[in-house]
Specification:
The protein is mostly helical. The chain has a single domain, classed as Orthogonal Bundle (Lysozyme). Helices cover about 65% and strands about 5% of the residues. It contains nine helices and two strands. Strand 1 and strand 2 form a beta hairpin. Helix 4 crosses helix 8 and helix 6 packs across helix 7. The N and C termini lie far apart (about 50 Å). The relative contact order is 0.13.
Amino acid sequence: MMNNKYFIYLICLVLLSSCVVSPPKKTSNICDIFYEKRSWYKAAVKTEKRWGSPAYVTLAFIKQESDFQQGAKPERTKLLGFIPWKRKSSAYGYAQAIDGTWDIYKKQAKKPFASRRSFNDSVDFIGWYNKKSTKLLGIPKNNARLLYLAYHEGRGGYKKGSYKSKPWLLSVSSDVQKMSNRYQSQYDKCKKKLRSPFYFLFN
C-alpha cells in the first residue's frame, strides 16, 4: 500500500513540474522573449487582434507586474514586524490579477477555465482590461503610463485621481511607459521575422 501511495505521489510531482513554465532568459528585449517562446508571440498577437492592445504594451505590463514569473504573488505583511502574515492582496500570476476582477474577466470574455498561471490567459486579460479603459476613460491604447494607472488603481480610482497622491506609483507608471517604448522599438525591428514561419522552422 505504501509503495502505491509513493508511486502516486511521484506521478503527481511529475505532472505538477511539467506545468511549470520558466521565465524567458532575457526579459528586457521583446524580440528575445518571442524568439524563445513562440507560443507567447502567438498569444500576444491574438490579444492584439481581439482587444486592440499592442503586444509591446501588454508585455510591458507583465514585465512590471510579475517579471514573467508564472506564480507571482504579493509579499506577505509582517505581524509584529517580523512574523509572516497575510498577503497584501489576492493578486496572482503573470498579470497580478485579483480574484474579483479575474472572475469578471472569465465571465465577460467567455473563458470560464482561464488560469492566472497561463501566459495566454494573462495577456488576454490585460488586453481585455485595457480595451475597457480605452473605451470608458478615453485613454489611447498605446499610452502605457495612463493605462497602467487605471489598471493599478481600478477605473474608479483613476477617475478620482487616487494615483496623484502616490508618487511611487507615478514613478512606476513612467517606468512601464519607458519599457513599452523600448519594447515597441525592438518589436518594430523583429516583427517581420517573427511573422515568418520559416524562421522558427530553421532556428
